[in-house]
Amino acid sequence: MLKRGIAAACLLFCLVCIWLMANGNFEKSPEQNEGESSLEETIKQIFTGHGSIVKVQKVDWGVEELPQRLWERVEHWQEYYADSPRAIMGYVELFDEPEGQAAEDFLWEYATVQHESAQETFLVVGTEIYQINTLRSNELWQSCMRTLFTSVPQWQISGDGADQYIHDLDFETYEEYRDPPYGKLELWYQGIAVSFYENSRLLACRRDRGDSSQREKPDSGRECLWFRQEWEDQELEWQFCTAESLTNRSYEELFQRLQTLYPGMWNCVFYTREAGEYDAWPLIDLMTEDAEYVYYYRRGQWYRVSIRPTEDVGGRQGLFGSKGYGIRHDLGYSNQESYSFMVTEQGEITETDQIQHRYYMEQGLGPGLRLCFDCQKTEEYQGEIFAGYTYEVAISRPGEEVPFQVLEVNSAERGPFSFEDFNADGWLDLSVLYYYGANGGMAAHYVWSPSKEEFLRMPEEFDYFGSYGVDEEKRQLHMHYHGSALAGTEELYQWSGETDCELIRRFSHNDLNDYQEMHIEISCYEDGQEKILSDYCYPMDEYLERDAIWGIYTLDFVWERGVELPGQEGTCILRYAQEKTLSEDKDAGEYLDYLFLFREDTYLICALEHQEAPAAYSGLAWDEERDQLTVSYAGGENQCYQWDGETFIISQDAGI
Q: Are the C-beta atoms of residues 373 and 393 closer than 8 Å to each other?
């Protein structure tokens, strides 16, 4: 037994030596002096005293190399632990700057890379960097670092203060969403974390060091921390600095101050810790044409973060990818927007006060027409499922104090007001969502009448449909309501005036007998007269396999004929349609032919869909003897569709 114990101890010693060599210096370090420094000795004593295996040494490179070296270590560990299920993570923490002249051995920052039960840490002390390789659990590493921070008097870190610099790297959560696990680096500063992943890297990190009492005042915008991040195909420059106090100001005062500081501001959002607050310690995220700014409050001080690309990206789209979201999340702010302001590139203005339920919008509706909408909540009521609100919407022209029209509208809680060309006449209309749910909700529509110069309420039957689409070219309105995943109603309307529209198609599909059957009703309307195309109950399995049924509703049949065909009882109905699929060139496009064959009871026997056609059709002829349909096209070409006893196929008849 004694021999086995000695052998096991030797094996463990060899493994530790191999690990320390694998995770040693980036470069060969200079020979150590005979007497180790007191700091190195302190580090060793603390880690060994807690039961951790440790190796401590100074490196021979400067602090300006830390970002690059840290990335090299992350990449090295990724390769070294390629088969491990545990993620590799790293971060840089920057400490509070001391008041007055900093001591030569003040702890400015530290960086660490961690993986499962191994850690590599770098302490930046004065102008020197100490490398610490440790082997044990991450919880033990945290305990050792906490003791270390409070054991060096000149670092001026108390027990409570040390806790803010010791972060629990959540390996379990990180690994859950990363497969395979990739390296991650976080830069921590004043309680905020900026994350870097495999497609991004920290390029530089700098903070002025020296006599803080001789520096410019915080309100001057003096930078405290500066670094660059490579993000996707852009290089972003970040600056953290202290900012003027914004506490105990109303959002109106805050907004006016920000407009003075940033005349080109086009987006501004206030986020709060509690839904009922917006004037006590908000987090503010705002955009200008060339940068994003975030203001936040931490431990009695306001800070400002600026994020800007190092090169002109030529527009707002894709500028930052909402980098401020990570800051908001890490500081514990909710997703509730308490106040927001936005100006679009077209000059449209939206101002939203979510707490007071007040909205202000300046919106262009069409050529030469711009209107102001001041929406104020007048009543709140509790519905069966959710709260509802009544708004008074005062509509005026810019510069006019007296509105020319006042609407009273009911609205749901989220995103109630929107502008769109509902009647496809070239002028934007007002839509107000007043119910939302799984079926898409209900919305009231107010169309702008150029002749009357006011908004007109559309009939309530248009409210019921959960979602809709507008074909501006054809001036058609597609509306659909789904009561379930399978059941619902589709309707197609044709606009002919400001508010005049005519129903031209309807499709109802409703399940029966506990989802055993699907009742299909499809009708088209001409001059107000209904024509039934389908009224049949299909077995559910057959309905789910027959996509062609939807074609009965979506296509315009331009020809039909009663025909008698071999293999079919009685007279059948053959219908033809053609569809033009536009390409990017509006004058070009593909033509597709469609044939549908029905029984007299409207059961769909077969369908030939998406058949390429050479051009637009010019004529159709049915040959009773041959059971063949000949389609003539513009340009003189013909194509024949032949009945083969079960379906229609393209005829190979050379006499076409």
A: yes
